[in-house]
Design a protein that fits this description.
The chain is mostly helical. The chain contains 9 helices and no strands. It folds into 2 domains: 56 residues, Arc Repressor Mutant, subunit A (Orthogonal Bundle), CATH 1.10.10.60; 138 residues, Tetracycline Repressor, domain 2 (Orthogonal Bundle), CATH 1.10.357. This is Transcriptional regulator, TetR family.
Length: 196
């Protein structure tokens, strides 16, 4: 059995990306609960059958949308951690503050939180009960950074610190209590204490 030719693979990736972008656009405008699969297909300029060939259900599309947004978000976290090298406090503060501020100004996150508070929403669990995608992706970036910049800290210690700080950061994204700078300050201290 031969693999798909590169041109077909690239075309399929472009279609998939267009569908996820259309879903994001419609979710920001109307809230996920009002997004219909037919509207996503129309916005992306493809048939409904093409949409269902890529995502067999609305849940599959929701997951793809969440995964893409998380990957973009985690790339920013990686940049902020790396910018501070071996200073765990400064790195944690910068990454956490970025995460909080980026989530606050991100129209998709706002749409998810707003619609989620008003009723059932398939996207809200990616920040709450199904946050394993966020935890895994952000935790991997923290472990990668620590392995390079803090080789003296054991992997199990880094794992616990990463898990705790990511969970707390997500919690503050969902239910913010203080300005981002203050929250980042507190959580950076927690992260450093967990590493020692």
């Amino acid at each position: 059995m031969s693999a798909e030719p590169p041109s077909k693979t690239n075309s399929r990736a472009r279609v998939r990306e267009a569908l996820v972008s259309a879903a994001r656009e419609l979710t920001v405008k109307h809230g996920w609960e009002r997004v219909r699969m037919a509207d996503v297909a129309q916005t992306a300029g493809v048939s409904r059958q093409t949409l269902y060939n890529e995502f067999d259900s609305r849940t599959g599309l929701a997951e793809a949308l969440a995964v893409r947004e998380i990957q973009t978000f985690v790339s920013g976290v990686r940049l902020h951690l790396s910018a501070h090298g071996t200073d765990p406090r400064a790195a944690a503060y910068a990454a956490i503050r970025f995460a909080l501020e980026d989530a606050d100004r991100n129209p998709l996150v706002r749409a998810i939180l707003t619609s989620g508070r008003g009723g059932a929403d398939e996207l809200l669990p990616y920040l709450t009960t199904r946050s394993d995608i966020v935890l895994d992706a952000a935790g991997a970036v923290i472990r990668e950074w620590a392995a390079e910049h803090l080789p003296q800290v054991t992997a199990p210690v880094v794992d616990v610190a990463a898990d705790v700080v990511v969970r707390l950061t997500v919690s503050h994204i969902v239910l913010p209590r203080l300005p981002a700078a203050e929250t980042a300050d507190v959580l950076a201290d927690v992260f450093v204490r967990l590493l020692t």
